[in-house]
Fold:
Amino acid sequence: MNEEIRNKALALKDGVNRFFVGKEEVTEDVIICLLSGGHVLLEDVPGVGKTTLALSLARSMKCSFGRLQFTPDTLPSDVSGMSVYRMNTGEFVYQPGVVMNNVVLADEINRTSPKTQAGLLEAMEELKVTVDNVVHPLPEPFLVIATQNPVEFLGTYPLPEAQLDRFMMRLSIGYPGREEELRMAEKALSGELYREAEAVADAADVLAMREEAASVYIAEEVLAYMNDIVRATREEKQFAYGASPRAFIQLARAAKAKAYLSGRDFVKPDDVKDVAEKVLSHRISLSPEARIRKASVSEILRNMIIKTRVPV
Structure:
């Protein structure tokens, strides 16, 4: 493990936390997704810092940032880009869309049409867009932070389960504690909160972090432990269906990144426990009977993880 590269990963986390106050765990989870090649869905009410989190992360790693406010009239070309005719040359030239940035904030993704949603999610999965039969690779690293408001449903297009499965984690920021909120207000009133975050890494550093995180060792017993958790979700009668094979693979990648940020070159069962609920909960649907009882996916999943035998 290259300590210099890992220290930059820790500095990246600290740099974001200077501006995104009081939610260190959320910051770490987003960086885990970044190092795992995954994407994040933030579900929370307005005003809790979703944009601040995305923007400070992009600036801390000296990468390009793009934000698109999704509305019902947002077009797929706003996401992927389009070909524009140049009269002086008589040629069509590709005009990049918002996905041609390293960090993309897809604000209120559930307010746009399924066609536009699908265009973004295709880019997330394949790391490329095709415009007029020409393939344009996306920049690396590439991270989508999508947001949606779980309170308002009027005029929204909820993401189908198959599209939710494309996100590595679904996170909720929540309100800050009293001390954190007071500290945030002090920073905002002094203007410090709105200063640009200092770059502590660059795109090449992030790609090196990804390689190191991917090289973290997972013992067969720990991998089997992860698989036991995933398979248990498929056998649980309170679930209409369980986690997919993609969920299993992303759980393993997230556990590797968690171990890497903890300074280890191997995965422990505790790493799996720390990320399992965040990786799996949005990929599972309750059965009709469980919905009637107003059961909680997260609560059932937590109990399931506790009951799963931990390798010694």
User: Anything to note?
Assistant: The chain has a mean pLDDT of 88. The chain has two domains: 3-205, 216-307. The chain has 13 helices and eleven strands. The CA atoms of residues 205 and 241 lie 39 Å apart.
